[in-house]
């Protein structure tokens, strides 16, 4: 039975219905618009239209009104979309997105890319990141949300927290870098050249004792402090470690009598302002030792002269850290080495013992690539203070040793070359959060120069930051040049973006971020051969990431360096080869020919260094 319609009342009701519906629709679409993407909105519109159609097929008049209603609604929708379209486009760039971090790929879809006014490719920046100051912290591999709130501005003042862009594209890499005048200026008042000196060697060889004693003799550790260390060490039954306590500051290090992290101290010799990097000798802390070695201009290799101890340090297969440390420092480009033959008091300052050590270790150091002329041998005793800052007064030593003391040996080292003509590269060794809530990146400036106010690019994330202040030996300075060991406090950057293992570089000359690299390696003494698929721990500057050998390109002739066999199946100890390594994450890297600091690498497995090498090609970059 057809329904009776009262047209006058119905039209009024329908007009009301129409107006209410129109307003409701508008509100609904505005709500959708602020909460959904365009695609989602279209989908919801279609669903809504279908539902409305179904309810509107009862009567012809109603149908007609519904059609009018649809037309008006969608015209209104379209009208409201137009002005919002522009906003939406901008808003797209600020929606939460995953951040990529060192050692991790961005798997949650593409990052929106927009062109800034100066035609640089930008991607969103991050908000609400956590601070991580530990390069080995797994938190550095976590994902966090990103927000772009403002485009890049070349004006430093506009680089406010949370309003910085992230760059992920090479900008000016092909253009020749031209250093500015202030970077090259060398006519500063007579200040001592900085020398980064790594103290390395087998566990318990006396590195910290030697370092502490040296600092005490040079007035860097006061008598009062020394007295305190002696008293406390004695109380804990560790009397012999009193000098080592000047370097080993943590409770665990002191209790165990083992250095765990690199201790940094400073002293002045006649020629140098020395940055002393006392490394751990224990096998378990080799990755930490590497941090020190990576910054070294020269090294002091401390060996224990006592019977059996020197031999233990020379053991193969990663057991003897004298060997491993020597190989590592050489692979980091250290050419000058002082061998401090310590604990000579234990062997009665025996010349025979010293000569034996010199011949054994000398042959090994030559095999690592150290030239005889770059090795200085110093027999000494840290505990008995013989041959440290003055030549030995003990006749048992002075009768046959006319060589230099340790301090003079340091002064006889050649001034390391500083490359200020290249663009800024500062591999980040450590990250410290300042009391003001800002973040400071610490490390050795490898190339270029930096000053307060400089803009820097923090890689591998690709975020811009501004240099707020620079500290050298905890003293603030206006600028620093290649070779300086500094702490750079950054502003206008999320603290979580600055991670140990990353790199600070010039914004227009970003370093590469690689996920697969071709390496030329020298395989060390290893018990099991390297195969395609072998899992490795890939180390480069201060970064460490897991990876696997993905390809064996060629075996090289040791003498000529030429290819002796293509695609070898296995690699054994002492062989040289070209291989490809695919990483589980991404690291800042450059071909060795372009940057020595970012092109030196080594591979570790089962707690032992299995190969040292250089980057010959970046096979795959992180886009
Ligand atoms: P790690 O950092 O753990 O590798 O040890 P280390 O090389 O720093 O050795 P450390 O300075 O902790 O000294 C280890 C032990 O060797 C301590 O008991 C020292 O007293 C002792 N020692 C260091 N130098 C000498 C020395 O010249 N003569 C004698 N007799 N003992 C020494
Ligand atoms: Mg130590």
From TrEMBL:
Gene3D superfamilies: P-loop containing nucleotide triphosphate hydrolases (3.40.50.300), Translation factors (2.40.30.10). InterPro entries: GTP-eEF1A_C, P-loop_NTPase, T_Tr_GTP-bd_dom, TRAFAC_GTPase_members, Transl_B-barrel_sf, Transl_elong_EF1A/Init_IF2_C. Keywords: Cytoplasm, GTP-binding, Membrane, Nucleotide-binding, Transmembrane, Transmembrane helix. The keyword Plastid does not apply. PROSITE patterns: G_TR_2 (PS51722). CDD domains: EF1_alpha, HBS1_C_III. It holds the Pfam family GTP-eEF1A_C. One of its GO terms (cellular component) is cytoplasm. The chain crosses the membrane at residues 12-33, 68-86. GO terms for molecular function: GTP binding; GTPase activity. Residues 192-417 form the Tr-type G domain. It comes from the Eukaryota. Its main location: cytoplasm. It is found in: Cytoplasm. This protein promotes the GTP-dependent binding of aminoacyl-tRNA to the A-site of ribosomes during protein biosynthesis. Belongs to the TRAFAC class translation factor GTPase superfamily. Classic translation factor GTPase family. EF-Tu/EF-1A subfamily. PANTHER family: TRANSLATION FACTOR. This is Tr-type G domain-containing protein. It comes from Zingiber officinale. The lineage of its organism: Eukaryota, Viridiplantae, Streptophyta, Embryophyta, Tracheophyta.
């Amino acid at each position: 039975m057809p329904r009776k319609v009262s047209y006058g009342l119905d039209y009024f009701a329908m007009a009301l219905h129409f107006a209410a519906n129109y307003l409701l629709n508008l509100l609904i679409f505005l709500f959708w618009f602020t909460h959904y993407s365009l695609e989602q909105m279209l989908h919801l519109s279609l669903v809504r239209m279908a539902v409305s159609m179904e309810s509107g097929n009862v009567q012809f008049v109603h149908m007609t009104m519904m059609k009018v209603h649809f037309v008006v609604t969608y015209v209104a929708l379209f009208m409201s979309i137009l002005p919002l379209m522009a906003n939406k486009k901008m808003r797209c760039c600020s929606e939460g997105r995953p951040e990529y971090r060192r050692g991790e790929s961005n798997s949650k879809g593409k990052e929106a890319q927009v062109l800034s006014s100066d035609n640089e490719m930008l991607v969103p920046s991050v908000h609400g990141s956590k601070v991580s100051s530990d390069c080995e912290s797994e938190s550095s591999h976590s994902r966090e949300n990103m927000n772009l709130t403002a485009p890049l501005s070349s004006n430093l003042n506009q680089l406010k927290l949370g309003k910085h862009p992230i760059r992920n594209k090479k900008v000016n890499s092909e253009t020749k870098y031209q250093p500015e005048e202030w970077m090259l200026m060398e006519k500063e008042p007579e200040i001592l050249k900085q020398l980064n000196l790594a103290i390395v060697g087998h566990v318990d060889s006396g590195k910290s004792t030697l370092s502490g004693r040296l600092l005490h003799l040079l007035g860097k550790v006061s008598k009062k402090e020394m007295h305190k260390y002696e008293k406390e060490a004695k109380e804990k039954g560790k009397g012999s470690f009193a000098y080592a306590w000047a370097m080993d500051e943590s409770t665990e290090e002191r209790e165990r009598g083992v250095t765990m992290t690199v201790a940094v101290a400073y002293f002045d010799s006649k020629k140098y302002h020395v940055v002393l990097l006392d490394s751990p000798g224990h096998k378990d802390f080799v990755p930490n030792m590497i941090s020190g070695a990576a910054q070294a201009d020269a090294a002091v290799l401390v060996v224990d002269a006592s019977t059996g101890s020197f031999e233990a340090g020379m053991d193969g297969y990663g057991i003897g850290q004298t060997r491993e440390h020597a190989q590592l420092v050489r692979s980091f480009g250290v050419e000058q080495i002082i061998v401090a033959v310590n604990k000579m008091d234990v062997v009665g300052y025996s010349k025979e013992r010293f000569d034996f050590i010199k011949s054994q270790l000398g042959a090994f150091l030559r095999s690592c690539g150290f030239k005889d002329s770059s090795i200085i041998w110093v027999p000494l005793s840290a505990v008995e203070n013989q041959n440290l800052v003055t030549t030995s007064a003990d006749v048992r030593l002075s009768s046959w040793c006319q060589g230099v003391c340790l301090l003079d040996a340091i002064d006889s080292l050649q001034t390391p070359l500083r490359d200020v003509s290249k663009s800024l590269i500062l591999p980040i060794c450590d990250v410290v959060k300042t009391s003001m809530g800002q973040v400071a990146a610490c490390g050795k400036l490898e190339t270029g120069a930096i000053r307060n106010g400089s803009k820097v690019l923090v890689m591998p994330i690709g975020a811009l930051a501004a240099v707020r202040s620079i500290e050298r030996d905890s003293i603030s300075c206006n600028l620093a040049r290649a070779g300086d060991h500094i702490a750079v406090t950054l502003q206008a950057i999320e603290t979580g973006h600055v991670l140990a293992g990353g790199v600070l570089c010039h914004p227009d000359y970003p370093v590469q971020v690689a996920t697969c690299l071709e390496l030329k390696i020298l395989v060390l003494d290893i018990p099991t051969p390297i195969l395609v698929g072998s899992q490795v721990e890939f180390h480069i500057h201060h970064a460490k990431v897991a990876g696997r050998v993905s390809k064996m390109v060629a075996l090289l002739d040791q003498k000529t360096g030429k290819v002796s066999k293509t695609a070898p199946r296995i690699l054994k100890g002492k062989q040289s080869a070209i291989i490809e390594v695919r990483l589980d994450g991404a690291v800042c890297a450059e071909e060795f020919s372009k940057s020595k600091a970012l092109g030196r690498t080594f591979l570790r497995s089962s707690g032992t260094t299995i190969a040292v090498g250089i980057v010959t090609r970046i096979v795959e970059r992180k886009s």
